């Protein structure tokens, strides 16, 4: 792996907002590599809790499989633990958090406790219908988590991860058309209102995320350079 350039002046707290398939995880991993930020995905943290069989994971499992939102209480407990780790001092990209008004308020309070605030919220704007295809075609490297897609992003060498050379890949159990539909509905009902919340505070940036992965990455990189410079 190449050395990470440290282009961030002060620790940044960046939020990626967008429905399932918008490319939050894909782009968060790029920003992590390019800016030395740490990607915090509540989806990944919850899946780890499910795999570990913790009490929180057991409660979250059925909700995630149905495409609903896990309770704020569980998500906040998991996020607070992760935010307390020393590596987050480099700045974080919140991927999939906050997702409700309650989570947004709790994040503000958590950051205020350490003299921080949200640096920017970036809304990844997409149309609903193509998101089902994006989610249904997705798979990741089982070793490093690098994301791929049957049609839109395949490894340079078939069956070998570009990032770590791993040869095992996996698909998420909630990546099917029916559950993706429920996840989209949850996004519109509970998460999309946060766009107005951050816009009202002058923190919102919008990116057309229907473009190709590299073009979206370029747009995001420009925003992150501006807000964190
Ligand atoms: P989570 O893991 O956060 O899933 P999600 O929000 O549904 O988002 P996805 O991971 O599906 O999509 P993404 O935007 O990251 O897209 P990706 O980059 O992979 O959450 C899962 C579940 O956990 C939730 O349903 C909920 O139950 C629970 N949960 C998590 N956080 C929670 C919270 N805060 N509160 C309550 N519950 C919570 O891209 C998708 C595919 O498209 C990839 O294959 C990629 O290669 C491809 N792709 C990406 N960009 C492009 C592009 N520009 N063009 C073409 N293809 C592209």
Blueprint (SSEs and pairs):
Elements (H helix, E strand, L loop, with lengths): L12 E5 L6 H12 L2 E4 H11 L2 H12 L5 H12 L8 E4 L5 H12 L7 E6 L3 H8 L1 E4 L5 E3 L19 E2 L6 H15 L1 H8 L3 E5 L4 H16 L1
Helix pairs in contact: 1-9, 2-3, 4-5
The chain binds BIS(adenosine)-5'-pentaphosphate.
Could you please describe the fold and organization of this structure?
The protein is α/β, with parallel strands linked by helices and 229 residues long. 46% of the residues lie in helices and 14% in strands. The strands form two sheets. Strands 2-3-1-4-8 form a five-stranded parallel sheet, with helices on both faces. Strands 6-5-7 form a three-stranded antiparallel sheet. Helix 1 crosses helix 9 and helix 2 (42-52) crosses helix 3 (55-66). It starts with 12 loop residues before the first strand and ends with a helix. Mean pLDDT is 92; it is low at 1-9. Bound molecules: BIS(adenosine)-5'-pentaphosphate (AP5). BIS(adenosine)-5'-pentaphosphate binds at residues 18, 20-26, 41-43, 46, 63-64, 67-70, 75, 96-97, 99, 103, 134-135, 137-138, 147-149, 152-153, 183, 209, 212-213, 216.
Shape: globular
Low-confidence stretches: 1-9
Helix fraction by DSSP (H/I, runs of at least 4):
40-55%
Strand order of the largest sheet: 2-3-1-4-8
Instruction: Give the assembly state of these chains.
Output: single chain
Nutshell version of this structure?
With 229 residues, the chain is an alpha/beta fold. It has helices spanning 24-35, 42-52, 55-66, 72-83, 101-112, 129-136, 177-191, 193-200, 213-228; strands at 13-17, 38-41, 92-95, 120-125, 138-141, 147-149, 169-170, 204-208.
């Amino acid at each position: 792996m190449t050395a990470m350039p440290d282009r961030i002046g002060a620790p940044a707290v960046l939020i990626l907002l967008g429905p399932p398939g918008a490319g939050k995880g894909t782009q968060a991993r790029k920003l992590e590599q390019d800016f030395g930020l740490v990607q915090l995905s509540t989806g990944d943290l919850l899946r780890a809790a499910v795999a570990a069989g913790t009490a929180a994971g057991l409660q979250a499992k059925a909700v995630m499989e149905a495409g609903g939102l896990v309770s704020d209480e569980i998500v906040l407990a998991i996020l607070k633990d992760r935010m307390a780790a020393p590596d987050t001092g480099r700045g974080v990209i919140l991927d999939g958090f906050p997702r409700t008004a309650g989570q947004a308020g709790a994040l503000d309070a958590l950051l205020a406790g350490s003299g921080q605030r949200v640096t920017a919220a970036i809304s990844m704007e997409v149309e609903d219908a193509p998101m089902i295809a994006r989610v249904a075609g997705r798979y990741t490297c089982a070793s490093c988590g690098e994301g791929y897609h049957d049609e839109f992003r395949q490894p340079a060498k078939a069956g070998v991860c570009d990032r770590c050379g791993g040869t095992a890949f996996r698909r998420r159990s909630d990546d099917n058309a029916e559950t993706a539909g429920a996840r989209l509905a949850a996004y519109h009902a509970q998460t999309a209102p946060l766009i107005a919340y951050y816009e009202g505070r002058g923190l919102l940036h919008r990116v057309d995320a229907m473009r190709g992965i590299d073009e979206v990455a370029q747009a995001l990189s420009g925003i992150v350079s501006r807000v964190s410079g």
